[in-house]
Amino acid sequence: MVTKPVRGIALAGGGPLGAIYEIGALAAIGEALEGFDPTDCGVYVGVSSGGFIAAGLANGLSANSMHEMFIESDTADDPFEPELLLRPAVGEYATRLALVPQLVASAARQYLEHGGSAGFFESFGRLARALPAGIFDNTGVGEYLTRLLSGPGRTNDFRQLKHKLFLVATDIDTGAWVPFGAPGWDEVPIALAVQASAALPGLFPPVQIGGRFYVDGALNKTLHASVALREGAKLLLCINPLVPFDSRRAASRTHRKAASVVEGGLPSILSQTFRTLIFSRMQVGMGRYGRDYPDADVVLFQPDRDDAEMFFTNVFSYSDRRRLCEHAYQRTREDLRRRRSELGKILGRHGIRINETVLADPRRTLLVKGRRVGRRPTDELDVTAIKLGATLDRLEGLLMAWAATAGGRAGP
Fold it and tell me: Strand 207-209 vs strand 212-216: parallel, antiparallel, or unpaired?
């Protein structure tokens, strides 16, 4: 009996923006590659928000189905709303607030016992323990995904999936990464594993599973593609939604004066910092995959460095969400056209053909007919005009602030 070579998909994180980009990119890939079905791969790996999309694919949800659920959400029976990510972590606040009297009394006692020699700030520094471990509560994401995976033909149990699914999180007390879905880690509900994998430190409290606390899997690696390669994947398609923005390249393409990211203020600077950190270590990881798994083909899809639309989009605007997904779809189609000679040879080794007729069809779109979504993505984007002087939404700002404390600790 001939064993069918394993194909896989690995999806990096990137918050709501990253998930939206991945949906658009997967829609383009799914329709343009003959012989490749994104919902029928042998192995899936998801990190952070990429885990949300990977869980959907492993359950047979196509990119177009997820587009309807998460982007065209007003047409879905159970729409996903980004506001789920902005619920205050009330329980965490209450738990920490209850510690204040005890911490104050302990600090005061230490200060007085040492006659003030210990120093006021040294004694009362322990009050930092009263700060919440996260600002927002992401249990709403887990609850939504639990409902979604309870539908006909879907499952919230790793062991009942037709294909292998791995959702990577980080044990906050050891710094070690954990592949939920692997033997010994597959009893955890998929929805809870997604919630843990996407718990960005400082933004969301760590998720407790089996007496341990877990946070975002991106603390260790950007893609964790090696998980799929160790499972025998011979063709692995990877999507990384976040790359650092090159304002000079963008200005050169649009023939306009280069505008500095600094003009966008702190949110833009933190965003650029975070993107640069994860992009740099991902490049190191991609080089290792080629050396460690020479018999496997790893194909990476990601935005261009001069993609202003991707860098400055406000994902909490309904029209922006729709426009970004369409933008990802069209840019991925362009990427496939541009690299069709190179990719055609790689994919051909796995029985996959690029349908150039599909890619050449200018009428193809994810946009619902009759709906206006603002300006259509174009090569004539004005870098200065696209929100460069505006403050990004508060969640994206907090997301990128994570880079200041967590990004420097991550490995390749």
Answer: antiparallel
Q: How far apart are CA 107 and CA 123, in angstroms?
A: 5
Burial 299-319 (b: 16+ CB within 10 A, else e): ebbbbbbbbbbbbbbbbbeee
Q: pTM value?
A: 0.82
- Determine contact, residues 6/42, Cβ cutoff 8 Å: yes
Tokens matching residue 306: 């001069």
* Residue indicated by tokens 């990253």: 18
Whether 227 and 8 have beta carbons less than 8 Å apart is answered as no
Distance CA 217, CA 11 (A): 12
* 395 has a pLDDT exceeding 60: no
Are 164 and 44 spatial neighbours (Cβ–Cβ below 8 Å)?
yes
Per residue in 181-193, pLDDT (tens digit) is 999 999 999 999 9
Name the residue with higher pLDDT: 103 or 198.
198
Q: How far is residue 409 CA from its own chain's centroid?
A: 18
CA distance 163 to 160: 9
Structural contact between residues 52 and 194, judged by C-beta atoms closer than 8 angstroms: yes
Q: How much is the pLDDT for 120? A: 54
Among residues 410, 321, 407, which one has the least CA distance to residue 85? 321
Tokens in use for 198? 């996407």
3-state secondary structure of 167: strand
The average confidence (pLDDT) of the chain is 82
Two tokens, residue 10: 């690995």
Categorize the per-residue pLDDT at 97 as very low, low, confident or very high, splitting at 50, 70 and 90: confident
Contact at 8 Å (CB) between 58 and 36? no
CA-to-CA separations, 19 to 14, 198, 395, in angstroms, rounded: 7, 11, 14
